[in-house]
């Protein structure tokens, strides 16, 4: 059994997180319930910052809030001195509601609407990561109309894909994101930006993948981009102030996952960029990274109550919980793998292999296949680990199931940070067939 962060087993054989007995958390808040280990999030944030400080490299560590966005988590990462990556008007609105310093907000996305760009300009975000020519031209037009300047990064595709242990070097990346680094698109975008009196290009951004367990992909991307930046310096007299190498740092979901520590990822980036800038006679840029999953993923645990079961002789034993693909759609979408325990009977002997089914009217609503557990009883509590990223963020109301609440735990104290949705919430925006539309 692998316990993340502050998780432990108390004298009663119950799972504890942040010094809080999960059985007591269930009594207080019900299930399903997302529980976040605040100490682990803080520790991870400090780990990412540590190496930049050690090497004296100017940097920004921006939390990629698409992993989990709420007022409370944004306030927490701000307290830890992080910047923020948002990808929609809703995430930007949440940042403003959390009173996050807007000059530390970077606005991403491959199809930002005019309304979202106006919102970003109204708030005066620190940087807009420009993804394509449509956006580039629209942003220039809006800024020209408003007589307003804005800092931008150009998102480029360096032709490197990295997922887990696999790295692919391609001549021209097939991606919906960014300006291609090899076919002249990136140069065209740079020249347009340099010619605009309203767009201030700080540098470039790339993102090579997700759940990355090695540093070679980041090294390959950094080398390729810096070689291009050297050409831009000579041809266009453009000096890059910022190099954003994105995120994608992996976490441990199961025994098959072997991620590096945050310090190892960052140190390798710093060493490689320092070496290449010296070789190419470039000034050392400010380095930005965007951890999301690696900050909150393994800090989150979802608690469920076990309900019905179905034994198919000589085939499978199904055990159902009171949640499923409405609070964790990743197994259905990606065949994502998770580990779990009975939170109220952690030390009992594992004498059955069962498959955990969700409650949705959907055959694909399965959370975990073939999980060894102590023989589960009705009302036992199942704790599924590492659900802090893309759990609540991707939660939905399929079958009209309300989304669960979120609690933060630390030093024996729990704090409700997102309320459980009610049935009334589900119909709040509905209108009667005879009701006159306000639009």
From TrEMBL:
Its EC number is 4.1.1.20. Substrate binds at residues 293, 330, 334, 362, 390. Residues 34-388 form the Orn/DAP/Arg decarboxylase 2 C-terminal domain. Specifically catalyzes the decarboxylation of meso-diaminopimelate (meso-DAP) to L-lysine. GO terms for molecular function: diaminopimelate decarboxylase activity. This is Diaminopimelate decarboxylase. It comes from Bacillus norwichensis. It catalyses: meso-2,6-diaminopimelate + H(+) = L-lysine + CO2. Keywords: Amino-acid biosynthesis, Decarboxylase, Lyase, Lysine biosynthesis, Pyridoxal phosphate. Its cofactor is pyridoxal 5'-phosphate. Homodimer. The modification N6-(pyridoxal phosphate)lysine is found at residue 66. InterPro entries: Ala_racemase/Decarboxylase_C, DAP_deCOOHase_LysA, De-COase2_C, De-COase2_N, De-COase2_pyr-phos_BS, Orn/DAP/Arg_de-COase, PLP-binding_barrel. It comes from the Bacteria. Residues 41-296 form the Orn/DAP/Arg decarboxylase 2 N-terminal domain. Belongs to the Orn/Lys/Arg decarboxylase class-II family. LysA subfamily. Pfam families: Orn_Arg_deC_N (PF02784), Orn_DAP_Arg_deC (PF00278). Pyridoxal 5'-phosphate binds at residues 248, 290-293, 390. Pathway: Amino-acid biosynthesis; L-lysine biosynthesis via DAP pathway; L-lysine from DL-2,6-diaminopimelate: step 1/1.
């Amino acid at each position: 059994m692998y316990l993340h962060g502050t998780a432990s087993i108390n004298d009663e054989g119950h799972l504890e997180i942040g010094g809080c007995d999960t059985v007591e958390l269930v009594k207080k808040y019900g299930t399903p319930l997302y529980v976040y280990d605040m100490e682990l999030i803080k520790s991870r944030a400090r780990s990412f910052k540590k190496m930049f400080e050690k090497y004296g490299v100017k940097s920004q560590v921006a939390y990629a809030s698409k992993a989990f966005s709420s007022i409370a988590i944004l306030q927490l990462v701000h307290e830890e001195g992080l910047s923020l990556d948002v990808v929609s008007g809703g995430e930007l609105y949440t940042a403003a509601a959390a009173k996050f310093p807007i000059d530390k907000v970077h606005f991403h996305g491959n199809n930002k609407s005019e309304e979202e760009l106006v919102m970003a300009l109204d708030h005066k975000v620190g940087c807009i990561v420009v993804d394509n020519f449509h956006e580039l031209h629209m942003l220039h037009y809006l800024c020209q109309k408003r007589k307003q300047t804005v800092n931008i990064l150009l998102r480029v595709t360096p032709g490197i894909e990295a997922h887990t242990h696999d790295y692919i070097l391609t001549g021209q990346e097939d991606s919906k994101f960014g300006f291609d680094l090899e076919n002249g698109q990136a140069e065209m975008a740079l020249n347009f930006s340099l010619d605009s009196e309203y767009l201030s290009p700080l540098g470039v951004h790339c993102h090579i993948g997700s759940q990355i367990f090695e540093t070679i992909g980041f090294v390959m991307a950094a080398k390729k981009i810096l070689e291009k930046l050297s050409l831009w310096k000579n041809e266009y007299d453009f000096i890059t102030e910022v190099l954003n190498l994105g995120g994608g740092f992996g976490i441990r979901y199961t025994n098959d996952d072997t991620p590096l520590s945050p310090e190892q990822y960052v140190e390798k980036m710093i060493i490689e960029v320092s070496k290449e800038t010296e070789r190419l006679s470039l000034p050392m840029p400010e380095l930005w990274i965007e951890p999301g999953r690696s900050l909150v993923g393994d800090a989150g645990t979802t608690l469920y109550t076990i309900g019905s079961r179905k034994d198919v002789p000589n085939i499978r034993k199904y055990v159902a919980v009171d949640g499923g693909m409405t609070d964790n759609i990743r197994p259905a979408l990606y065949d994502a793998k998770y580990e779990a325990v009975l939170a109220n009977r952690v030390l009992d002997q594992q004498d059955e292999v069962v498959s955990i089914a969700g409650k949705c009217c959907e055959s694909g609503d399965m959370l975990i296949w073939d999980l060894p557990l102590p023989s589960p009883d009705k009302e036992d509590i199942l704790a599924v680990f590492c659900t802090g990223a893309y759990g609540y963020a991707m939660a939905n109301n399929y079958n009209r199931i309300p989304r669960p609440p979120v609690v933060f735990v630390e030093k024996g104290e729990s704090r409700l940070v997102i309320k459980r949705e009610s049935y009334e919430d589900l119909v709040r925006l509905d209108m009667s067939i005879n009701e006159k539309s306000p639009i």
